[in-house]
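ok so for the tutorial part 2 we go from a plain amino acid sequence to predicted structure tokens. step 1 is just haveing the sequence, like this:
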Amino acid sequence: MDKIFRRTLFIPIKEYLILSFILYLSLIARFYKINNPIADWHSFRQADTASVTRFFLNEGVNPLVPIYHDVSTTQSGIFNPNGYRFVEFPIFNIFHLYFYKIIPSLGFDIVGRLTSIISSLVSTFLIFLICKKMFNNKIALMASALYAFLPYNIYFTRVTLPEPLATTFALSAIWFFILYLENNSLINLFISAISFSISLLIKPYVLFFGVPMFYLAYVKYSLKDLIKAKEFYFWLSIVLLPFIFWRIWMLKFPEGIPFWKWTFNGDGIRFRPSFWRWIFGERLTSMILGYWGLIPFVFGIISVKKKQLFSQMFLLGALIYVCIFATANVRHDYYQTIIVPTIVITTAVGLVEFWNLKNYSKLLTRVLVIFTLIIMIMTSFVQIKEFYKINRPEIVEAGQRADKLLPKDALVIAPYNGDTAFLYQTKRRGWPVVDRPIDDLIEKGAMYFVSVDLNHYQTLEFAKRFKIIESATSYIIIDLTAEK
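step 2 — the prediction. this is what the tokens look like for a chain of 484 residues:
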């Protein structure tokens, strides 16, 4: 461990060029369909995130009271007329807004994606630095390349979601914590604490990044010394207090707090056979590692060096995370975004160990490593490419027409099975579902009904009763304030 902490930050020119090339190609890969409207995979979650930024843009920035477009009872079970949105502290939205004001010509949605892309590039660089310190140059380059080019990670680090930014700050916390352990600089400890605090405010799930940090501190100081160390409590207070205060503040706005208890084990799936199948079979093995990547991943786990269990401890933290938040990780594949760093680090260790095997044919071994990388990326891409598709382009067309025809302050019903992506396209507040009698919604302020399901019984019923503003082959806009 002492040897690790004595390594320098010097990056030889050759490594610098390779890393620069990785970052450049990583950027290019994430530009694929960057101009997609927010109507691709997990559009509902992206729409909710982007909506907060849009309200910051139109109504001013108030990070303590974030609001968005959904006023329904869908998220919290309570009518939310003000559109409160209390999930993550809106740090991602502040970055999104700042970048948009710098380059508004790119478009609001594209800049939202670009915010995540920039985060992913920083994360790639941080993974390189961390692995260079903890392992060696080859593992550092391999891990950063895997993070840059895994199809799963390419997609989920170019979406308008806070996870990529939370991951960046969490990795930054680890990096500066390593520097603190190396030189005992309180500045590095402070930066680590601030970074980890920000990442927790964005996504509390990144708490598992604390496991490898605790391990490194334990190896250097021992548990007894850690308990006595004032610096440890200084770090811990900076990390946790802002998060605690934010959570207490949120309680003032219960209508803006979405249901969250289901994320733990809401459907009782934890440790059932289907849990292992979905997490380790479908997500890890198939979607992220493309089947073939599982071999070096497992090899990376068992490649234990004396007093060097960093990657294993990082992986342990990820395992704790997916087990605690079992239902969320099974239901939604984007929940695994934050565990990708530990997956790529472990896989990189395994690949480099394979590459350096001495008891087998060097040529065949290295050909197999290259073949494994190619097949794992191709196999994963076959699945991930479907995520880029816009399955219902008509919601974009209908939303644009509604935006042109309807008053800016109108409350709109844009039913899409509770998915807010359609409502987001209208740029209006309202309901993503008709969850009660239409007269009740009108009483609560609903003024217009926009639908892309022309044969749905509700659409047919409302079209008979209320005035039709515009009707096309793919959508209909109805005035709920004017009965026929």
